[in-house]
Design goal:
CATH class: Alpha Beta
Strand order of the largest sheet: 1-10-9-6-2-3-5
Structural class: alpha/beta
Number of domains: 1
Helix content: 25-40%
Number of strands: 10
Strand content: 15-25%
Order of helices and strands: EHEHEEHHEHEHEEHEHHE
CATH architecture: 3-Layer(aba) Sandwich
Largest sheet: 7 strands, parallel
CATH topology: Rossmann fold
């Protein structure tokens, strides 16, 4: 099992996750004059983002990237970028920017190609990941078309299109590849509840095609740290 930080409440976990992201961003600013965090969508990490946006950072030097995105406009209720823009609004108002994955392209593949050009040069100081009940992380879904390519560490792409029929909402997704996540200085995985913790423990001994999050924990360069609360 990867290192796990246990918190008594979800509120304390969110504060700690926000602090961890903030520390990584500050380190990036100090080292390079700029920093980038790759963030997951969904409602689970949203409280951490709201706390993060209140931190006293030089937000003009910060870029927020997306771990994955649905192929929907930013105004759509299911847009991960839309969620990030709402929850991180104070930071964005102070100069932080969001690197979009979605674009008004004809197909998800076209949007992924555009996003790949933008994301190829991003250096991730931290990536915050989650996990679904099916063992997916990012848009690495079991049974997804293109899963083998997205998990291939030799894949030079940073962003690819994924078709995931089992995914909630639209099955058409854009996602960071495993090789892109492997560039992160730090990886944190946010897990809530006893069922999710048990599912993670089971996933780590299953093949990545069945539980793709296992591929995340198989990275040799940067072992993820789990943040868990009941």
């Amino acid at each position: 099992m990867a290192p796990i930080s246990v918190f008594p409440t979800r509120a304390s976990l969110m504060a700690a996750a926000a602090a961890r992201i903030g520390e990584a961003l500050q380190a990036g600013i100090a080292a390079r004059g700029a920093a980038c965090a790759a963030l997951s969508g969904g409602t689970s990490p949203e409280p951490a983002y709201r706390i993060l946006a209140t931190h006293a950072l030089d937000w003009r030097r910060v870029t927020f990237a997306l771990v994955d995105e649905r192929f929907v406009p930013i105004e759509h209720a299911d847009s991960n970028e839309g969620l990030l823009r709402r929850s991180l609004a104070p930071a964005l108002a102070r100069g932080a920017r969001v690197a979009s994955m979605f674009s008004d392209a004809r197909t998800p593949a076209d949007a992924a190609a555009r996003a790949d050009g933008l994301y190829a040069n991003l250096r991730f100081d931290v990536a915050l990941m989650g996990m679904g009940a099916d063992g997916h992380t990012a848009s690495w879904f079991p049974g997804a078309a293109g899963l083998r390519d997205v998990l291939d560490l030799a894949n030079p792409r940073s962003v690819v299109a994924v078709l995931a029929p089992r995914a909630a909402g639209t099955p058409q997704r854009l996602s960071l590849t495993r090789s892109a996540i492997a560039r992160a200085e730090h990886i944190a995985v946010l897990i809530l509840g006893e069922e999710k913790r048990a599912r993670l423990e089971a996933a780590l001994v299953e093949p990545p095609q069945t539980s793709p999050i296992a591929a995340l924990f198989a990275l040799a360069a940067c072992r993820p740290q789990v943040f868990w609360a009941p």
